[in-house]
Amino acid sequence: MPEGKTLEFKRDISSPKNIIKTLVAFANTAGGRLLIGIEDDTRKILGVDEPLDEEERLCNLIADNIEPHLVPNVELFSLEDKTLLSVEVYPSGLRPHWIRKEGPDEGVYVRLGSTNRKADRELIAELKRTTSGISFDEQPLPDRIVDDLDFEAASACFERHRKFVKKDLESLRLVVPHQGHLVPTVGGMLLFGNDRDTIFPDSWIQCGRFIGKDKADIFDHIDIHEHLPVAVERVMEFLKKHAMRGADFSEFRRKDVWSIPLTILREAVINAVVHADYSQRGAPVRVAFFDDRIEIENPGILLPGLTVEDMLQGVSKIRNHVIARVFRELDLIEQWGSGVRRMFSEAEALGIPQPEIIEVGMRVRLIVYLVESIRVQTPTQITAEDETRLKSRLKSRLKSELAAKVVFLMAEGQASKAELAQGLGHKSVSGELHKQVKNLLELGYIEMTIPDKPRSSKQEYRLTAEGKAVLTEEEREV
Questions:
Q1: 287-334 pLDDT, tens per residue?
Q2: 74, 87 in Cβ contact below 8 A?
Q3: Residue 301 φ/ψ, nearest 5 degrees
Q4: CA dihedral 456, 457, 460, 461 (to 10 degrees)
Q5: In Å, how far from its chain's centre is CA 345?
Q6: pTM of the prediction?
Q7: What is the DSSP letter of 149?
């Protein structure tokens, strides 16, 4: 076996600091085994000279250099007539452990793949929470009040399932008692907070469609700041926008057939939202659509004691209990621990390559491969004369030259009012532009990117499916 999250080889113990760092990382993450007497590059079995003395030296190193005290299973065993030293570490209930000389703030390490990574302040806090059994999203926000939660938005999300009432706020732990009165929890604000972006500026989703198989050239992007249950649907809309759709008439009714595995992708997006570490700064959930694959990644490493192999076996650990409970109530999660297995089973049934789960830096990335590459469909190039005729047709249809120009500009992608004004050559947003944007919204030709916050400073507008259809129809007539 190669070195990995739970396995490492060392030739000898001549570099004790690296050994101590590895054992600390094992204890703080998913446990692991360190084998001494094996060349780590070639995996050639070298054995240990003076094994009893080396065993005693190693035990002393562990006792003298790791806090809190760590008691791994240290043993000698023979292989190919050579004696090896094995140190097995189990996930610790006393985490975080640290290197004594570096201290509890600088000496904490975690295991990422086959490497050891120093934990920052947020990750150290996360390690402490996992031993206490309290998730980040269960914590109260004492400086907030119940009215900071958007009750109407929560009611709208539950509308198709049951009537959402005030007492549900407490039963779902969206609010909790604190010093004699109810306050929102972190999870409550993340799910339905009126000003979530103020408290958690990175709790949004970044989507991008790239040209080719890397991030050198982006074709389209969207930043999703809506309430988390709604945000899942917005991500799926973005993915569908850049996929291809066909039809299957083999059954009695028409059935849409998509060029991307929607069931797997939906499960992956939900998984990323539910298991994201929202305490991390500068790290939104990201969805990247390439020609040959789609990558969904969330901030936060796998929870202590959990490996990718465990996930494939259906083992589940919930990072955000409040968010997971609400998603369960909304039927976005079917049953605990089934999501990853279901994605892999669906991939096998569809005959597409198995998804891949990897830890990249302080993030978990799930890669969904496509059966066939999907190239970006760039807009048809039209001449200046055709452009003039198209704007003229749109003007007649919309009864406004300015509205026609706005629709034409939005064909290039979403934009704020300020960006539209700039594209029109105006110095500022005029009253007439406000009016035409409102009219296009009422006609259903454009929509807000943050509909539940109409006055948001991050508000942008994009063409709806109906708006795109109108533009395409007029282009055909040019």
A1: 999 999 999 999 988 888 888 888 888 787 888 999 999 999 998 886
A2: yes
A3: -80, 170
A4: 50
A5: 21
A6: 0.73
A7: B
